[in-house]
Specification:
single chain, three-stranded antiparallel sheet, two-stranded antiparallel ribbon, 17 helices, 8% strand, globular
Length: 441
């Protein structure tokens, strides 16, 4: 009886959190002034082939990345793990296998899952971005289904979710939806032009940018007043992509932003790594130039937000200035010397001491988000695990050093890089590296 009361209290507490968040929610996407108008995510003049149209939309919606197990999983067969504060969720099989995939789903069932978050086993968790996909037109949702049903069926069932109580109770998502989910179709803003509205549809509905780049509130819903202000996702930083000139992308040129979105590299700014590299590789590089431009137009017009982590994203786009920044704890001078020695032996060959990179522009460090973040969150991930990005048939690759470096070594080289290329005093500790290492295993 005592255990039951504790469980009931936990469930009640969770419902209370959800109810508290209800009053703070506000719509993040322009509602427009006219009636809802169906918008297609397929570019004008695109192929009439329904499978090709669905493929384009599926790429724009970035379905493959989330529904493919890391480490060589079959595309769209599911199995990718998503680590959340209350457990692990595994992506489901989207191939048309009738036993383990969606092969038996009707149009109505597919639409309900994508736009309302209700699947064959009940309510879906918002790790599946139905809170953004709810804005998709029926035409686009069914086109995606047409493409998925053209794939080779794969008989594969992901392992069960591992969530703590009460989060393992799917019925509880009904209360979460009441608080945070507002089903509606995208409504063009009649005060804006067609190109802007197309960019808004690509960013908010199909591309669901806010799902990764917006901090979460106490109920784990997107915090609307910090829309696109940046947060931490799967151990990596998802940086501020609002129009703020200091902490966001407001100071980026149009060419820099379009280059980053379409190729994963912005000259003098950053190269995509980690989860963002996956988005570029599997989604954004396949968008038409006109859609990349529309997406850029929309992002550059967003409300500027500084975000909570202001100190971490003041960027410099120019050259490199050496710094005498010291490391926290222990013999700082010796630690800094250790970081310099490691960089000189293992990193300078590709990145060079002036940060311009050798052999490939993707090795450039000047102006990078990662080397201007004193916490070194993404920098540590790159050092530990490396990163890859294949764009236009060309693979960019940085190996991970987690197997060769101790936690202290990773902290030392990270802080040296932050000081040398970002002119900031790094705050990376061996303890933080150990936590990052454990989270990625």
């Amino acid at each position: 009886m005592v255990s039951f009361k504790k469980s009931l209290a936990g469930a009640a507490g969770a419902v209370g959190v959800i109810a508290a968040g209800f009053m703070s929610y506000k719509v993040m996407v322009p509602e427009g002034t006219g009636p809802a108008v169906p918008v297609s995510g397929v570019p004008a003049g695109f192929s009439a082939d329904p499978v090709k149209r669905g493929e384009y939309l599926t790429r724009a919606a970035d379905c493959e990345v989330c529904h493919t197990a890391q480490g060589g999983g079959t595309p769209f067969a599911g199995g990718r793990a998503f680590q959340l504060p209350f457990g692990t969720i595994y992506a489901t099989n989207l191939t048309p296998d009738k036993a383990t995939g969606i092969g038996n789903w009707t149009d109505e069932q597919f639409i309900r899952a994508v736009r309302n978050g209700v699947g064959s086993h009940g309510n879906l968790y918002p790790a599946m971005s139905y809170t953004s996909y709810t804005q998709l037109s029926t035409e686009d949702v069914l086109a995606i289904k047409t493409y998925l049903f053209s794939l080779q069926p794969v008989h594969y069932t992901a392992q069960p979710n591992s969530l703590s109580f009460p989060f393992n109770q799917r019925w509880g998502m009904k209360f979460w939806n009441l608080a945070f989910f507002h089903p509606r179709r995208f409504q063009p803003d009649t005060a804006k032009g067609d190109e802007w509205n197309r960019g808004a549809y690509l960013a908010t509905a199909l591309g669901h940018c806010g799902e990764c780049h917006t901090p979460r509130n106490i109920g784990f819903a997107m915090r609307s007043h910090d829309y696109l202000a940046g947060t931490k996702v799967q151990g990596w930083k998802a940086y501020n992509t609002t129009s703020d000139t200091t902490y966001g992308i407001g100071g980026w040129t149009e060419a820099q932003l379009e280059g980053y979105l379409s190729r994963g590299h912005a000259e003098g700014r950053s190269s995509a790594s980690g989860p963002m590299a996956e988005v570029v590789e599997h989604s954004l590089q396949y968008l038409s130039p006109s859609d990349i431009h529309a997406l850029t137009l929309y992002l550059r017009s967003t409300e500027p937000e500084t975000g909570a982590d202001k100190h971490a994203v003041t960027l410099r786009s120019g050259g490199v200035q050496a710094s005498n920044a010291l490391l926290p704890g222990g013999d700082a001078a010796a630690d800094n010397a250790r970081g310099k020695k490691l960089f000189e032996g293992d990193c300078a060959g590709c990145h060079q001491f002036n940060g311009t990179g050798r052999q490939t522009e993707y090795a450039s460090l000047a102006g990078s988000h990662a080397v201007n973040d004193p916490s070194g969150t993404s920098l540590v991930q790159v050092i530990l695990n490396g990163t890859t990005l294949t764009v236009q048939g060309r693979k960019q690759f940085m190996p991970g050093f987690g197997g060769a470096y101790s936690d202290t070594d990773v902290a030392a080289v990270a802080n040296y890089v932050l000081a040398h290329f970002g002119s900031k005093t790094g705050t990376v500790t061996a303890k933080a590296v150990h936590s990052a290492r454990q989270a990625s295993e």
